[in-house]
């Protein structure tokens, strides 16, 4: 059974860098895209971007200037960095797996990490 | 832009529910597929994939859930709502970048 387990700092000050890691247990790492998605308090879902096993990325243009994703296939992990955070970046951040041949099929999700940005 | 209606759907147990998702652009990809999925978010539970590529039910999803539609208009139907179906349902398109989600539809029991 596939499990995505994520972790990272939950409280940041404005201008700091958000850093999250997602570890994948079980399943192939190369047959999927690996995404980050966030959900602001009381709001809907926002796609941040994706990375494949070779490190190829696609980012949301609204966040592109501040986002970096990376992958460590040897550890079956991928990560998200979002720099210069503000209160508007306060959200629950999810990592998710997307089936390569069925785009939009986010079939496994991490448990979510609440990141709060406050001075 | 993905627009879902209604935003809230009070339903009697055992009765059907229907959620609409409309895209501002056609979701037909150049490869001929339409990448429209439906997700379920229940309180305290991981987000769950229900339907992908418009009408394909994901593994383990009960057959009371069905998806339909084409082009810009899509629908998720629950044939007979059960108590465990309470939650928020999202459509998501993956035909274009960036991926975008509908606002969510809250299904609750009357």
Q: What is the topological layout?
A:
The complex is a heterodimer of chains A (119) and B (110).
Chain A: E1 3-8, E2 11-12, E3 18-25, E4 32-39, E5 45-51, E6 57-59, E7 67-72, E8 77-82, E9 91-99, E10 106-109, E11 113-117
Parallel strand pairs in A: 2-11
Antiparallel strand pairs in A: 1-3, 3-8, 4-5, 4-9, 5-6, 7-8, 9-10, 9-11
Chain B: E1 2-5, E2 8-11, E3 17-23, E4 36-41, E5 48-52, E6 56-57, E7 65-70, E8 73-78, E9 87-93, E10 100-101, E11 105-109
Parallel strand pairs in B: 2-11
Antiparallel strand pairs in B: 1-3, 3-8, 4-5, 4-9, 5-6, 7-8, 9-10, 9-11
Distance between the termini of chain B: 30 Å
Reported for the largest beta sheet of chain B, the result is: 7 strands, mixed
**Alpha carbon gyration radius of chain B:** 13 Å
DSSP summary: helix tally of chain B: 0
Assembly of the depicted chains: heterodimer
Beta-strand share of residues of chain A? over 45%
Fraction of helical residues of chain A: under 10%
Largest interface: A-B, 24 and 27 residues
Distance between the termini of chain A: 40 Å
Provide the low-confidence segments of chain A as ranges. Answer: none
What percentage of the residues of chain B does DSSP assign to strands (E)? over 45%
Give structural notes:
The complex is a heterodimer of chains A (119) and B (110). Chain A has 119 residues and is mainly β. Chain A is built from no helices and eleven strands. In chain A, strands 2, 4, 5, 6, 9, 10 and 11 form a seven-stranded mixed β-sheet that branches. In chain A, strands 1-3-8-7 form a four-stranded antiparallel β-sheet, with no helix packed on it. The radius of gyration of chain A is 13 Å and the shape is globular. The mean pLDDT of chain B is 97. Chain B has strands at 2-5, 8-11, 17-23, 36-41, 48-52, 56-57, 65-70, 73-78, 87-93, 100-101, 105-109. Chain B is an all-beta fold and 110 residues long. Chain B is 0% helix and 49% strand. Classes of the chains: A mainly beta (119), B mainly beta (110). The interface between A and B is medium-sized, with 24 and 27 residues.
């Amino acid at each position: 059974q596939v499990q995505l387990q994520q972790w990272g700092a939950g409280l940041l000050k404005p201008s700091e860098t958000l850093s999250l890691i997602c570890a994948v247990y079980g399943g192939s790492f190369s047959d999927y895209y690996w995404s980050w998605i966030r959900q602001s308090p009381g709001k809907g879902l926002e796609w941040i971007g994706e990375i494949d096993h070779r490190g190829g990325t696609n980012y949301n243009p609204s966040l592109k200037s501040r986002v970096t994703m990376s992958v460590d296939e040897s550890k079956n992990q991928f990560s998200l960095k979002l720099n210069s955070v503000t209160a508007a970046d306060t959200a629950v951040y999810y990592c998710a797996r997307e089936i390569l041949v069925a785009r939009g099929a986010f079939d496994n999700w991490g448990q979510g990490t609440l990141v709060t940005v406050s001075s | 832009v993905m627009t879902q209606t209604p935003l809230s759907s009070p339903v009697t147990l055992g009765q059907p529910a229907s959620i609409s998702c409309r895209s501002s652009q056609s979701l037909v990809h150049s490869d001929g597929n339409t990448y429209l999925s439906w997700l379920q978010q229940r309180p305290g539970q991981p987000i769950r994939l229900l339907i992908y590529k418009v009408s394909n039910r994901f593994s383990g999803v009960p057959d009371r859930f069905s998806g339909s539609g084409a082009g810009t208009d899509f629908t998720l139907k629950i044939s007979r709502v059960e108590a465990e179906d309470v939650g928020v349902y999202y459509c998501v398109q993956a035909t274009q970048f960036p991926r975008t989600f509908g606002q969510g539809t809250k299904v609750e029991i009357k």
